[in-house]
Specification:
It comes from Neoroseomonas lacus. The protein has about 260 residues and is α+β, with helices and mostly antiparallel strands. The chain is built from 7 helices and 8 strands; from the N terminus they run H-E-E-E-E-H-E-H-E-H-E-E-H-H-H. The radius of gyration is 18 Å and the shape is globular.
Length: about 260
C-alpha cells in the first residue's frame, strides 16, 4: 500500500548554525512521542500514515517519518528533514511518496499548518466511509470540533503527484480537521501538541459515535446554540490543555519507552 519516494538528488545542506538546535531537538522529541503513543493506541496502519512538522525557524523544511518504519519504531533522531522539492536534507532513508506529496504541499500551501497528522485510524476512518456528515454533534467530545471540520468528498486515489497534494491542501480551507472520504483523516495545527490533542480526541469522539450508532437507536443531537457555546468553552483552554496532554504522554513514554527520545 505504501510507495517509497524516489532517491532524492542533490540534497541541500542543513547547517546547525542556521537553527536553534535545542528548539529543533524538542520538536523531534515531541513528534516522536506522538508516533509512539499513536502506535500504542492503534491509531496507525502498518508502515503507512504520517505525521509532519515544519522545522522551527525554517518554513521551507519539515520533519516527517521515514518510509519502512512503524510508528512504534520511531525515535527523535530517526525523523527525516525534507524540503518541498523531495530532497532529504537530514536523516537516513526517504519519505513514503504519499507522505511527501500530501505533507509537503499542505505545509507549503497552508501557512498555519505547522503540524499535519494524517492517519487511517479505524473509528474516524469508518465515519469517513459513510454517506453524509461524518461527525454528529451528539457527544461532548465531538463538540471540540464543532465548526472546525470539513469533508473532502473527492477521493482521488493515492497522492503520488503534486496535483493531488495541492488538491488536498486546497480542500482544508479554514478547517483544522479534514475527513477525507474513502480514505482517512488529516489534522492540522499550529503546534505538535495541538495536532496531537485533536487527533486523539477525534478518534475518541468517532469511537463513541460508532458505538452509539451500533445500537440502532436514534442519536440525541445537541442543539446548535448549545453546541456552539460548548465549543467556545472548550477552545478557551484548548492550547494549554493540549500542551499538558503531550507532556503527560512524554512522561509515560519516558518511563516505559525511553528510547523514543534517542
Amino acid at each position: 500500500m505504501a510507495h517509497a519516494l524516489g532517491a532524492p538528488a542533490a540534497p541541500a545542506i542543513l547547517r546547525n548554525t542556521e537553527l536553534d538546535a535545542d528548539t529543533v531537538r524538542q520538536a523531534r522529541v515531541d513528534l516522536a512521542a506522538c508516533f509512539r503513543m499513536a502506535g500504542r493506541l492503534g491509531m496507525h496502519e502498518g508502515i503507512c500514515n504520517h505525521f509532519s512538522f515544519v522545522v522551527p525557524g525554517r518554513d521551507d523544511l519539515f520533519l516527517v517519518n521515514p518510509y519502512g518504519w512503524a510508528f512504534s519504531e520511531i525515535t527523535a533522531s530517526r525523523l527525516l528533514v525534507c524540503d518541498f522539492n523531495g530532497h532529504v536534507v537530514a536523516g537516513d532513508g526517504v519519505p513514503e511518496a504519499t507522505a511527501f506529496f500530501i505533507h509537503a504541499r499542505v505545509h507549503k500551501n497552508v501557512g498555519r499548518a505547522k503540524a499535519a497528522f494524517h492517519t487511517h485510524m479505524p473509528n474516524a476512518t469508518a465515519l469517513a466511509m459513510l454517506e453524509g456528515p461524518p461527525l454528529v454533534w451528539a457527544g461532548q467530545t465531538a463538540l471540540k470540533f464543532y465548526g472546525r471540520t470539513m469533508v473532502d468528498e473527492e477521493y482521488g486515489g493515492l497522492a503520488l503527484d503534486e496535483q493531488e497534494g495541492d488538491r488536498i491542501a486546497a480542500s482544508i480551507g479554514d478547517a483544522d480537521i479534514v475527513f477525507m472520504k474513502n480514505h482517512g483523516v488529516m489534522v492540522v495545527g499550529g503546534s505538535v501538541a495541538e495536532a496531537w490533542d485533536d487527533l486523539y480526541y477525534l478518534e475518541r469522539a468517532a469511537e463513541v459515535q460508532r458505538m452509539a450508532m451500533a445500537t440502532g437507536r436514534t442519536l440525541k443531537v445537541v442543539p446548535e446554540a448549545m453546541a456552539a457555546r460548548t465549543y467556545a468553552q472548550m477552545r478557551e483552554g484548548d492550547r494549554e490543555s493540549a500542551r499538558l496532554h503531550l507532556e503527560s504522554v512524554k512522561r509515560i513514554l519516558a518511563r516505559e519507552e525511553p528510547d523514543f527520545m534517542h
